[in-house]
Amino acid sequence: MAEILIQAKGHWMDNFTQSQIDALEDGAKKSRNARIQLGDIVVVRPDGWVWGREECLPNYLVVKLPQLTVEQVEHFTQSLMGEPDAQGNRPTLKKRKYKIPSQWVTPYITAGTSVIEVKLTNQQQALINNVIEKTE
Amino acid sequence: MAEFLKKTVKPSGGNYTSLEACMNANEQDLTGDGWFTVEIDGTWSSADTSAVTIHNYTTTASDYINIYTTAAARHDGKGSLDTDKYRIVNGTAFAAAINIGDNYVTITGLQITTYTGFAYGEVGLNIGQNQTGILIDKCFCHVKYDSNDKGGSTIAMAYAGTVEVRNTIAVQTGTGNAISAYSTEGTKNINNCIAIAYGSNAILTNADYGTLTIRNTYASSGTTTAFSTVDATLTTCASDDGSQSTATVAYDTSTFTNVTAGSEDFHLVAGSSLINAGTDLSATFTDDIDGTTRPTGAGTWDIGADEYASSTYVYTRGDYADLPTDDSDLETAFTEANYTTVSTDDTNRVDQTATNQYAIFKFKDKNTNSTDLMTVTWNGQSTTAPSSSIVKLQIYDRTQAQWEDLDSDNTTGANTDFDLTADITTELDHYYDASSWISCRVWQDDL
Fold this sequence. Notes:
The complex is a heterodimer.
Chain A: E1 2-7, H1 18-23, H2 26-33, E2 41-46, E3 60-65, H3 70-73, E4 80-81, E5 92-94, E6 98-99, H4 102-111, E7 115-117, H5 121-129, E8 132-133
Chain B: E1 3-9, H1 19-25, E2 35-40, E3 52-54, E4 65-69, E5 87-90, E6 98-100, E7 105-108, E8 111-115, E9 125-127, E10 134-137, E11 140-144, E12 155-158, E13 162-166, E14 169-172, E15 179-182, E16 187-191, E17 194-197, E18 203-206, E19 211-215, E20 218-221, E21 227-228, E22 233-235, E23 238-239, E24 247-248, E25 256-258, E26 265-268, E27 313-320, E28 332-333, H2 336-342, E29 358-366, E30 374-380, E31 391-397, E32 402-409, E33 418-424, E34 437-445
Parallel strand pairs in B: 1-2, 2-4, 3-6, 4-7, 5-8, 6-9, 7-10, 8-11, 9-12, 10-13, 11-14, 12-15, 13-16, 14-17, 15-18, 16-19, 17-20, 18-21, 19-22, 20-23, 23-24
Antiparallel strand pairs in B: 25-26, 27-28, 27-29, 29-34, 30-33, 31-32, 31-34
């Protein structure tokens, strides 16, 4: 009973040269390191959600998970955060802590399939089990 | 430089259904291209529950990001959550509801709520370190205490950069601050804001190495001093405890319409000590959280996000090639003599001519509440017979952000009195605004 929006394209900073990276200020370097990645789980919504006109390829894939609740998957939109500073603020190390493996995502992108329904419980569980938890 | 890119965020029919999906999908280098507009529109029966990160854009002063709500999606300016308008409700651990990590970002008219209870760091609106060119206007930000006592600030800013927060309400019901500014090295301005904190200082600043200015701002803290500021310059501010030598003004219904937690309405009441107690900032901005024009001149500005409106009617008129789609006042305001003329049903009239255009009268009236049923009546005549060119009476629907027909006349002859009238008994919340104003207009097409 959940639908997830998955990043389906690379980031414009992915192919920065080292000299471009070196030219960034420290804050911008950290933001670049934290940038969204292919397969990142961006948004979770309940089933039947009417997505926007651009919440599809080439930006996103919509994956329908009718056997899973929003509560079971919404934590996948968390960011990977660093240790708190003196004021208690935590830096964002990665915009998303969790991602779907690219080998699962890429065939749908190649086929131009924006909406995927994973109907079988075991298939949904396999997908969730294969979600990658990023580390720093 | 012109608008380069515009995207809409709507519950249906827009480019995106969440602000995060919009901001994420369009990250790019805007340098030399123009600005990026994000329009949030529509009626929102459910909240946008995705925390938003604005980062990895490259922006300049003329190639900026402008995020705003339309009238249909804009909150009512009260300070309590408006549940049919756009709102971000964030419950993600460690996350700010909105985290601004880029320069030159303007955000206008958003409701932002974060539920805290996980750990330090759940912030309402976080303006990242060293960001410059940031303007937060007409927003309502709320951090709500959940099950833990580790809430972050409702609005947080730090270090270098240029930031202005204006016409904005920050409420903190956890143990964090309503507004905090740490180690400010750049220029920070807090203008005409309201900061309410239940368990800590409402406004906390420390180690100001740059310029931190707080003007026309009211603060209240439930447990400690309202203002805890270091090196900040405070001008015509007020608080419930007089901290930092601010004027002492009670946090109760002698000042604001409602101060009950969860039902706050920070519109000023008649006789409020905040009325006309502020400094004229019209060189910087000219309106309030409702979009109402603030006056000019010494002793005319109010403290807080709302500018108190004492008059109960504003009538304007004009001739236009196209019918205005919004609720803005028309080009010619009624004079006192005009008001006197229309106050009596007689043969004296206020005229509006039009040649190949629309002749329009607009009548904004303020009621004492937002629940009274309405009867709208207009009497007049035209030199152009309604039988040849229809005359319509309309009312402005604030939910749909559009004018709706109430009555019309297409039978009366020229120079003959006729009435337009209507009773409005349902969906009153579509027509009253937060301060109980309604807007009607009468027009004739002379195209």
